[in-house]
Automatic annotation (TrEMBL):
It comes from the Eukaryota. PANTHER family: DEATH DOMAIN-CONTAINING PROTEIN CRADD. InterPro entries: CARD (IPR001315), CRADD (IPR037939), DEATH-like_dom_sf (IPR011029), Death_dom (IPR000488). This is Death domain-containing protein. It comes from Biomphalaria glabrata. The lineage of its organism: Eukaryota, Metazoa, Spiralia, Lophotrochozoa, Mollusca.
Length: 240
């Protein structure tokens, strides 16, 4: 039986950053025999992948199996399989730098904002404004934030493929699911980490304008009303 568990953190990050690219460029049927021969997937896994009705679904199932194939040789064997059939894909994966491997960058506009603001939760109104900064391959960001592909597809369907509304709802659901994590800092960190992969189209200039303007509106002295999930200015004390 193949070793189970999650991939190494960096390997998982590379797969996530290139998830949509992988879905578009490979055909799972062409590499499952190799992966089975190397104990990356089981016979049941192989049969489950092959019997899927479309290339997109086969690739979805394969990538899901890979993400849970363990921290051992699975990712390396996956790259070897791609070397044989899709060398341009394996080359792109090898060139992708996971967040942990990146050198510390110069201080950005966001790092200059006050720490109190960075830890502010993203409100419904700001989710709407921020959603307009997302371009092609925005789904990769939602995967990185913890949503599954099933949830993303369902939200797109519920919103009649209105991308801005779908992104808005997914950002709000992210905050609802992770109320202590869904901050401006976490979102910007996620977007910055995926920028070098070249798979996500984000209007960073507009993102900066929106976030800096919100920081200015709220002011530096802030506190969070946890019940309303709104950030409000801290009242100055009149005590002597």
């Amino acid at each position: 039986m193949p070793m189970r568990g999650k991939l190494k953190q960096n390997d998982e990050a590379v797969i996530r950053q290139n998830y949509l690219f992988l879905k578009e460029e490979i055909e799972a049927k062409h590499i499952v025999d190799y992966l089975y021969s190397k104990d990356v997937i089981s016979l049941d896994d192989k049969e489950e992948i092959v019997c899927q009705p479309s290339r997109s679904r086969r690739n979805d199932v394969l990538l899901d199996k890979l993400m849970h194939a363990g921290p051992g040789i699975a990712y390396c064997e996956f790259l070897k399989a791609l070397d044989e059939e899709y060398s341009h894909v394996s080359q792109k994966l090898r060139k992708t730098k996971p967040p942990a491997a990146r050198q510390q960058q110069e201080q950005s506009w966001f790092e200059e904002l006050p720490d109190q603001f960075k830890q502010t939760l993203i409100t419904d109104a700001m989710a709407t404004r921020l959603s307009e900064c997302f371009g092609s391959n925005w789904e990769s960001v939602m995967l990185e934030l913890g949503h599954t592909q099933v949830i993303i597809d369902r939200e797109k369907q519920n919103c009649s493929n209105n991308v801005v509304r779908a992104i808005t709802n997914l950002l709000i659901k992210w905050r609802q699911k992770q109320p202590k994590v869904a901050t401006y800092e976490k979102l910007v960190e996620c977007l910055e980490s995926m920028k070098d992969g070249g798979n996500v189209n984000i209007d960073f200039n507009e993102l900066e304008k929106i976030i800096v303007a919100e920081n200015t509106r709220l002011g530096y002295a802030m506190e969070t009303d946890e019940n309303n999930l709104e950030t409000i200015p801290r009242q100055e004390s009149n005590a002597q």
